[in-house]
Design brief:
The complex is a heterodimer of chains A (397) and B (142). Chain A has 14 helices and 12 strands. In chain A, strand 6, helix 7 and strand 7 form a beta-alpha-beta unit. Chain B is α+β, with helices and mostly antiparallel strands. Chain B is built from 6 helices and 3 strands, in the order H-E-E-E-H-H-H-H-H. In chain B, strands 1-2-3 form a 3-stranded antiparallel beta sheet. In chain B, helix 4 packs across helix 5. The longest helix of chain B has 21 residues. The chains are: A alpha/beta (397), B alpha+beta (142). Chains A and B meet through helix 10, helix 12 and helix 14 of A and helix 1, strand 2, strand 3 and helix 2 of B. Chain B: This is Fe-S cluster assembly scaffold protein NifU. Chain B: It holds the Pfam family NifU_N.
Chain lengths: 397, 142
Amino acid sequence: MNGKVYMDYAATTFVRPEVVLAMIPYHSISFENPSSLYSYSDGNRRAIEEAREAVADLIGASSEEIFFTGGGSEADNWALKGLAFSRAGKDKRHLITTETEHHAVLHSMEFLERMGFRVTYLPVDSEGFVSIDKLKEAIRDDTLLVSVAFANNEIGTIQDIEAIVEVCRDRGVLFHTDAVQAAAHVPIDVKSMGIDMLSMAAHKFYGPKGVGALYVKKGIRLENLIHGGGQERSRRAGTENVASIVGMGKAASLASEEMEFDSLEICKLRDRLIDGVMSIIPHARLNGPVGNRRLPNNANFSFVGIEGETLLLDLDDAGIAASTGSACASASLDPSHVLMAIGLSHEMAHGSVRLTLGRSSSDDDVSRVLEVLPSIVERRRAMSPLWDDYMARREVL
Amino acid sequence: MLYSEIVMDHFRNPRNVGEIENPDGVGEVGNAKCGDIMKIYLRIEDDVIIDVRFKTFGCASAIASSSMATEMIKGKSVREAAELTNKAVAQALDGLPPVKMHCSVLAEEAITKALNDYLGKKGRPLLPERNQNQLAHDHGNR
């Protein structure tokens, strides 16, 4: 990575060379429109179907239950709006989700509220887990769908999906999960887990950007969001992004083979990073759970007295690419809704940094972060009135 | 890059960081909810600011605004310092992104508050201050 330490794999991964090689022919040699009738297009059509099978295999689905989309956000939008619109005018007009979902889900839900649907936003506990009892209480006779992310994109919390599905199944409610961060990183089997719909995005597991997939269990009817031609069995119009679909398929098949080993290796690095930061830097907080209930690649910290963008830019100066849930790094200026939902104070939510690891992460990368982060934190705290106040309060107590 | 070279220079190498013991004037503005707190300390002799220090919790823009504002009032008279505007601070930084302009407002505010602390102690008329609630409101809605 050119001497740089990249620790923002949750934002996007690089495209694996094997994936790039698989894609190249479909940009040039096999460029025909897969919907064309002449025989040249047969190879393209076949390549799409092979990719569909690879994606289906990754999550234990049947290939006819996989629909390619323009990414994870589109998959989330389609699952929620498509199902809601298919039931418009019927008696099921209530949906349930959590306060910590990705904006693709939250903003879709807000849109549906404007369309007259009712939505319940479940709180989470201090580690980001949904309460099964609160879910049970929230389900009503008119509840159509429950949507809970498989794993949280900011703090890495992996939900107890089987327990959530069991509640949904008992009450006859459909279940969708945004698995954009989880797919290809942790084992998922939609059949044994009882998942009705699942969203994923290729660029989170070493595939290209701009392509994703929605798993829809056979028999579930969704209203189309994108109208036009008859692609994707007349459920999602638009000429197929063949090269990217092929890339997603290749990334999925590589993940099926290598996920277990990769995750174990990345977990070791993650734990070294977390243990190191927590032991070296005083008054640091790990956001999210510990151990195997956390995504293998995710570490998220808050540091009292420092604003997250400051950390991000200082890390960038040290050659480390990271992410923050801090307000000032975005246009909204509101701190991360996820960090606020797990009960962090505003100052702690503002002072967060997310470090996410991947296939190219190394011990040296972790060492580099552990080498530079303590001095960055110390320097910025020394110029923070909030840190002074915090320490003064501690002395009083 | 979101910021100008001058902003990044003041962020990386902030001038006048620190505190002044028994300052002649001190002003703190902002709140943790918005993610910015600025505290300005003044040493004033014969109505001239002979030293100024700051401590800031906030983003790069907040730190750079504090740093630049302290540079701009150092050695100035109280009257001259009172005329410092957030626009002048932002201009000196070669501009700030629109969403970050509130940081320069905070710098102006903190200085006004510190000057008023000094003027109050001397029993002199105070400078008009912006309404903090209004500022917080503006901040949250940008």
